[in-house]
Specification:
Layout lengths: L11 E8 L3 H16 L4 E9 L3 H11 L3 E3 L2 H6 L5 E4 L6 H10 L3 E4 L7 H14 L3 E3 L7 H11 L6 E9 L16 H4 L3 H4 L2 H9 L3 E9 L4 E2 L2 E2 L5 E8 L4 E7 L8 E8 L2 E6 L5 E6 L9 E4 L5 H4 L11 H18 L7 H20 L3 E2 L12
Parallel strand pairs: 1-2, 1-4, 2-3, 4-5, 5-6, 7-12
Antiparallel strand pairs: 7-13, 8-11, 8-17, 9-10, 11-12, 13-14, 14-15, 15-16
Helix pairs in contact: 1-11, 4-5, 5-12
The structure holds nicotinamide-adenine-dinucleotide.
The site of nicotinamide-adenine-dinucleotide has 21 residues, from helix 1.
């Protein structure tokens, strides 16, 4: 399922150009420095160039994050001949122009989610990447959790039978306090969607485990219309009904105002033979209920251990646990492996464009007050490795 770098025999140096050094920029830098230690390989990822808003911030952050050079202009980074991969960790509205320019210059691109503000922009980027033969990946890190890989294996082996129902949430409380500034996240021109755009990770989990939804019906709400830094221009909470191609139906909730929920990314999938349950706040556990035994047995907790190769790479002892940053290291491993092996990475721009098509359909559904079919044109050709 996932690629291991041990099979790589080709010596290769891959030079990373990182744009943005906020929350995600630091996380990506940490992953770039760690990946060679956790997953020994003949491929070497080097932190070459860092771009930020201005040259002073870029120089300071390049020093802190261990990059050789810095620039205050991202356009220099995407054309720099010493950069092989452009890694985009900026606010959402910059993803499209940066990724487009990087692809046009023949760079591989790792971009944070969501891929773009508009579904047609995402589709255009996916088509451009395919035409240029560039490796692309989007930062849906939670699908890299070995627990999710295990869940996919169990589903594939038929352990919970035919999939019938999906209940997904990604609820947090980072904007529950009305006195908290929204920053770029509450401005439509910078963020696009609100809670749904930020927390669309739940759709990457359903994409991995259940497949694509063909139709959606959603409700959006902005609960706190004004914050200290200005009006709130996108939604605080969303819920939606989904009809999946596999026949299952389901619900999705996203909220940035759910007090007490810090990373409430959960997924419960019920099938004809049992149910799987996952909660990111307890990311080392998968819960399985099988209908073939004594019904009083309840759910069985499967604790992540070294029998999962991506866990073993970090730790030989079971139950010690992986964390959020470890998922970013696994993600970076998959990116490096795809570049060296000249295979597609996953989730690539095509997969991310399909997620953007689902969120756009949800927004349209809310505005039209009814069911909307998801427009998946030109984004059908990638699948999980
Ligand atoms: N995968 C995840 O779990 C996850 C988590 C948080 C954020 N994200 C995504 O990561 C992206 C960044 O989010 P963040 O929380 O790191 O934001 P942030 O505000 O913490 O950091 C943004 C960075 O981009 C830089 N930047 C802004 N404009 C720039 C420009 N014109 N040129 C160069 N640099 C520029 C800022 O200076 C800053 O360093 C967003 O798309 C967000 O949706 C993903």
């Amino acid at each position: 399922m996932s690629v291991t770098l041990e099979v790589i025999r080709k010596m290769q140096v891959i030079r990373l150009g990182l744009i943005g050094s906020g929350f995600m920029g630091r996380t990506h830098a940490l992953a770039a420095h760690s990946v060679g230690l956790v997953f020994p390989s003949t491929a070497k990822l080097e932190c070459e160039l860092l771009a930020d808003c201005d040259s002073q911030a870029a120089a300071e952050n390049a020093g802190l994050l261990g990059f050789r050079r810095s620039t205050g202009d991202w356009r220099e980074l995407v054309t720099d001949p010493q950069v092989d991969v452009v890694d985009i960790c900026t606010p959402n509205h910059l993803h499209y122009p940066m990724a487009k320019a990087a692809l046009e210059n023949g760079k591989h691109v790792f971009c944070e989610k969501p891929l773009a503000l508009l579904p047609e922009e995402s589709r255009e980027l996916a088509a451009l990447a395919a035409a240029r033969d560039c490796v692309t990946m989007v930062g849906f890190n939670y699908v890299k959790n070995p627990v999710i890989t295990l869940a996919a294996d169990l589903i594939e082996r038929g352990e919970i039978g035919q999939l019938r129902h999906v209940r997904g949430t990604h609820v947090e409380d980072y904007l529950a306090d009305p006195l908290r500034e929204g920053g770029w996240r509450t401005q439509q021109s910078l963020a696009g969607l609100g809670a749904l755009g930020d927390l669309c990770h739940v759709l990457s989990l359903t994409q991995r485990l259940v497949g694509e939804p063909g139709a959606v019906c959603a409700d959006f709400q902005t609960v706190i219309p004004e914050r200290p830094d200005g009006p709130v221009e996108n939604e605080d909470q969303v819920h939606a009904l989904l009809r999946f191609d596999c026949g299952a139906i389901g619900t999705i909730e996203c909220s940035r105002i759910a007090w007490g929920r810090k990373n409430g990314l959960t997924l419960e999938i019920s099938g004809s033979e049992g149910t799987l349950y996952f909660d990111q706040e307890r990311q080392n556990e998968l819960w399985l209920y099988r209908a073939d035994g004594d019904e009083r047995q309840g759910f069985r907790r499967i604790l992540l251990g070294p029998d999962q190769p991506d866990y073993a790479a970090f730790c030989p002892a079971p139950g010690h646990g992986l964390g959020f940053n470890d998922l970013k290291v696994i993600e970076m491993r998959d990116l490096v492996a795809a570049i060296v092996l000249e295979t597609p990475a996953w989730p690539d721009f095509a997969a991310a464009a399909r997620i953007d098509a689902v969120t756009a359909a949800m927004a349209e559904s809310y505005h039209r007050s009814g069911w909307v079919n998801v427009n998946r044109a030109a984004t059908e050709d990638s699948e999980a490795q």
